């Protein structure tokens, strides 16, 4: 069972709803690319012919509690509507849209649905459950979207907390600046998770349907220590935990057995998994960059609050509320140091943008032929 690690719920000062601006900025950069992909790569006639009704089904995998998901759905629907009207000039009526908002069962769906835009042009449904598994009937989804969700692994690689393993990540909470063996364990877990994700989507998405994924990314040629997505800042959380160990506030063994289940992928990582999966064609894949807005200590404080909204659930689940609060407070005290470091190291924020299209493959042909042979054998045997 994949770990449930939702963002901070509600509308409090550390809630994800009030601290998801960085994800919004990253997604906003991509909206033009998504519209291009829909207009250039989507075939409405094939998509709607693949299902028994004329409604168009969209899923946001990892929707959290808004508001970013609503903006994304609005932009996608506008692009699909434009494509529909362009491709079907003789038909003035656009399809009805059904949007499925998916996240972990512990996600705050109440806050999400209380915030639904009243002017929305779609029917909305919640689909709780991990996207590392099947969630929808076969061939029922036309467009799948996931933004800043697939960097989260389904679990922490087990070998990282095994003292007898070469991948034991003693004293660290992540793979950045860790050993090659630790990094390899993270890579293997990412590849396994993405394969599970794509296999599930391959059954759920209609032929010609699309997946758009946005996640923190890095250039393939860069070392993992050069992650430009801001996650290098985890070293400061690690430093705060180490200070607490040295002061006798925290047991060293607790830190030795904790790792953040997050991986920043490269185009090379993603291409390898997609090609091995063989159910999707890569229509577009690239790293996009936006200039860092970290210019002073106040910006560093805002970043820490943002990361708290994202990561607090993970730290609290493992260390408890008291230790987690202390760690975030100590890291906030390092803002001057963090700001100076980021001016040098964090020049740009990088995102991996991926567009995939569902295709017929040799795997499908084998399944079809096997089913056909069984059917013919049934007929020739007299139906007995």
TrEMBL record:
Organism: Anisodus acutangulus
GO BP terms, alphabetized: methylation
InterPro entries, per database record: MeTrfase_7, MeTrfase_capping, SAM-dependent_MTases_sf
Identification of the protein by name: S-adenosylmethionine-dependent methyltransferase At5g38100
Keywords per UniProt: Magnesium, Metal-binding, Methyltransferase, Transferase
GO molecular function per UniProt: metal ion binding; methyltransferase activity
UniProt family annotation: Belongs to the methyltransferase superfamily. Type-7 methyltransferase family.
Record carries keyword Transferase: yes
Organism placement in taxonomy: Eukaryota, Viridiplantae, Streptophyta, Embryophyta, Tracheophyta
């Amino acid at each position: 069972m994949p770990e449930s690690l939702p963002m901070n719920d509600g509308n409090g000062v550390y809630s994800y709803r009030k601290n998801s601006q960085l994800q919004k900025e990253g997604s906003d950069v991509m909206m033009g690319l998504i519209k291009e992909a829909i207009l250039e790569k989507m075939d409405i006639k094939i998509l709607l012919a693949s299902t028994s009704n004329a409604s168009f089904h969209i899923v946001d995998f990892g929707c959290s509690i808004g508001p970013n998901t609503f903006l994304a759905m609005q932009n996608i629907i506008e692009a699909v509507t434009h494509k529909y009207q362009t491709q079907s000039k003789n038909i003035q009526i656009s399809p009805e849209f059904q949007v499925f908002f998916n996240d972990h069962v512990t996600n705050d769906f109440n806050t999400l649905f209380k915030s639904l835009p009243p002017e929305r042009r779609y029917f909305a449904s919640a689909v709780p459950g991990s996207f590392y598994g099947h969630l929808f009937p076969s061939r029922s989804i036309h467009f799948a979207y996931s933004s800043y969700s697939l960097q989260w692994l389904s679990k922490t690689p087990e070998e990282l907390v095994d003292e007898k393993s070469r991948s034991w990540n003693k004293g660290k909470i992540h793979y950045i600046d860790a050993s090659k063996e630790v990094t390899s364990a993270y890579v293997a877990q990412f590849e396994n998770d993405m394969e599970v994700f794509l296999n599930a989507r391959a059954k759920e998405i209609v032929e010609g349907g699309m997946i758009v994924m946005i996640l923190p990314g890095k250039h393939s040629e860069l070392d993992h220590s050069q992650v430009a997505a801001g996650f290098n800042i985890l070293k400061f959380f690690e430093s705060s935990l180490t200070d607490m160990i040295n002061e006798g506030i925290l047991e060293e063994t607790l830190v030795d057995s904790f790792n953040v289940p997050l991986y920043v992928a490269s185009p090379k990582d993603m291409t390898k998994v997609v090609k091995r999966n063989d159910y999707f064609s890569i229509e577009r894949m690239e790293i996009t960059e936006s200039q860092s807005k970290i210019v002073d200590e106040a910006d560093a404080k805002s970043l820490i609050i943002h990361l708290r909204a994202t990561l607090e659930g993970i730290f609290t689940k493992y260390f408890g509320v008291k230790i987690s609060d202390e760690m975030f407070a100590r890291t906030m005290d390092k803002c001057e140091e963090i700001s100076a470091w980021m001016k040098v190291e964090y020049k740009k924020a990088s995102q991996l943008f991926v567009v995939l299209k569902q295709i017929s493959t040799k795997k499908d042909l084998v399944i079809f032929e096997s089913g056909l042979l069984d059917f013919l054998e049934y007929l020739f045997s007299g139906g007995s």
